[in-house]
Amino acid sequence: MARKKYSSEFKTKVALAAIKGEETTNQIASRFGIHPGQVRQWKKKMLENASLVFEKDRKKEKAQQKLLDKLYREIGQLKVERDFLARKSGLK
Asked: Which one of 7, 11, 19, 58 is most buried, by most CB atoms within 10 A?
């Protein structure tokens, strides 16, 4: 029998329900039609990896800042070249 695959959205919904603690693990498992052990496993994984949500933001910010720095360097280089060519051509 092939294993059923669940979407990340579904796993998140189940894990958040377990983290809220408003229902027992068995109640959550029954409501979503999965095994209680699966609920515990997804809850544990969610709690262990919660900090990754914010790391991705930092990685994205670092990447954006790196790109911005590169673009500013290119702009600076182009201004230097433009000024040099303007002086050589006698326009300045």
From this structure: 11
